[in-house]
Design brief:
Elements (H helix, E strand, L loop, with lengths): L2 E6 L4 H12 L3 E7 L3 H7 L7 E4 L5 H8 L4 E4 L7 H4 L1 H22 L4 E7 L11 E2 L12 H14 L4 E7 L1 E3 L16 E6 H11 L3 H4 L2 E5 L6 E3 H11 L21 E2 L2 H8 L6 H10 L3 H9 L1 H10 L2 H7 L3 H7 L2
Parallel strand pairs: 1-2, 1-4, 2-3, 4-5, 5-7, 6-12, 7-10, 8-9
Antiparallel strand pairs: 9-11
């Protein structure tokens, strides 16, 4: 008999790759749940003959009750992520915590045998620039201003205390095809970074559906493993180089010195020992980005490398705080 899988947040970078992985497995009947935006419909409608697509809000309790019924596994990815989560606390609370609470309540009331795969974040450990080896049992210590991490902390606690069957994956820095993100300046250049690609992460999530007994009631750190570890300055230099930008044009004072997150997962092998998903290296990821970056983009970026770097640095929040001598913000970003 096929397993019935519910995937929330399927239009996101990880969600979309997870959907592809799930559909590769002939043993699963997949239901996709996401908001009815034009973008989401354009992305998901091509799967209408392969998956059951349901549009709606995670805060619609009656709809959530209906889609939870009859499911064997729920992979819950729907969330408001940074920087929006850190700017709109009400929305982040509504989706990330209350939405998850709705799912958990529906499981308890209508489908108590269902298994929840919940994605949390490395951000719950806070700033680890000085102590960069991270294990699941380490203290929770959210960085100042990281409201997204707070929503994950309270969601984890609620799930653990609910009595349902679950596993929690604390995701490391997940990398797809990059785009300009103001958070790139929030990470100190000396941060240790263990990445995982969206494809690697999706593999783990899809494989979890067949390992629920082993994973039940446990929390795991999900990272790419030893071959995906690098210092942020080197990672940034390589990524910028792929796009034709030179790292030397970027002002070091535009980057924060503290109060972010990430590190090396000392125990990321534990989840891999169960699921066997760590098959991509850092070099593989660089090659993937290069292959998917049009040559014309690299050429144009190279031509305008200096002004592009100037523009990005000028709009860095740590840089603005330093230049304007904003004492509160400087205390957050700098030692």
């Amino acid at each position: 008999m096929k397993k019935n899988i519910l995937l929330t947040g399927a239009s996101g970078n990880i969600g979309y790759q997870t959907l592809l992985k799930l559909l590769e497995n002939g043993d699963y009947d997949v239901t996709v749940f996401d908001l009815p935006s034009k973008k989401n419909k354009k992305l998901l409608e091509k799967f209408k003959n392969k998956a059951n697509i349901v549009y709606g809000s995670i805060n619609d309790t009656e709809l959530v009750n209906r889609i939870v019924a009859g499911k064997d596994v729920i992979i819950h990815l729907a969330a408001i992520i940074p920087p929006l989560a850190d700017k709109n606390h009400e929305l982040a609370q509504k989706v990330n915590f209350i939405g998850t609470e709705n799912l958990v309540h529906s499981i308890k009331e209508f489908n108590p045998k269902c298994f929840l795969v919940f994605t949390s974040s490395i951000s719950v450990y806070g700033d680890r620039t000085k102590d960069f080896w991270i294990n699941v049992g380490d203290p929770i210590n959210v960085s100042e201003g990281d409201y997204y991490a707070l929503t994950k902390v309270v969601s984890e606690k609620m799930i653990r205390e609910s009595g349902i069957n679950y596993t929690i994956f604390r995701l490391t820095g997940i990398m797809g095809l990059p785009h300009t993100d103001p958070l790139m300046f929030h990470m100190p250049l000396n941060t240790k970074l263990e990445i995982a690609s969206t494809r690697t992460t999706a593999s783990a999530l899809a494989l979890a559906c067949a390992h629920t007994d082993e994973l039940n009631k446990n929390i795991y750190n999900l990272g790419g493993g030893e071959t995906c570890r690098v210092e942020y300055a080197e990672f940034l230099k390589n990524m910028l180089g792929i796009y034709g930008l030179n790292f030397k044009y970027f002002k070091t004072e535009a980057f924060a010195e503290k109060n972010f997150h990430c590190g090396y997962y000392e125990d990321s092998h534990i989840l891999n020992d169960i699921l066997d998903f760590q098959h991509e290296t850092l070099a593989d990821y660089y090659a993937f980005v290069k292959q998917n970056t049009p040559q014309i983009v690299r050429l144009l970026t190279k031509i305008f490398a200096r002004p592009a770097a100037y523009f990005l640095c000028k709009n860095s929040e740590p840089y603005i705080a330093r230049k304007k001598k904003l004492q509160l913000e400087m205390g957050r970003y700098f030692n």
